[in-house]
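Reopening this one. Same input as before:
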Amino acid sequence: MAEKKTAVLLVGHGSSESHANDSMLQVLEIIRKKKNYSIIEAAFLELSPPFIPEVIQTCINKGAEEILVVPYFLNRGRHIRRGIPQIIREEAQKHPNIVLRFGNAINFHPLLAEIITDRISETEKADDIRDTIVQTETNEKPCAG
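Same output, byte for byte:
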């Protein structure tokens, strides 16, 4: 029996500011170079296209028979528990011959401690926040929390 053609779909939250999506897309390019999947795509949950349903269709159009949906989310919050699985279930109903599998959030991994340690070192060299010019747009809202 022949193996199914498998696609990997990396899913991020999405941002209305396109540069905020760039880090996930950079990770996707590294994965493309390292892993042996002929179809590796990216989609976003909201705010920035391409969105999950259209990229699932893209994977199918490229011949995918199985799609591994892997979230690019740090924690298992409501988007991972409810939002994204619901979208994937709806797409699975539309495409009964396609296997759709949903992975877990990044959660804890020892490499995260290395990344945070690097950020701590960078922060030690940063200017005091009072000495930093913050670039804001006139219509930008302050972050809550």
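So the earlier flakiness isn't reproducible anymore. For the record, The chain has a mean pLDDT of 85.
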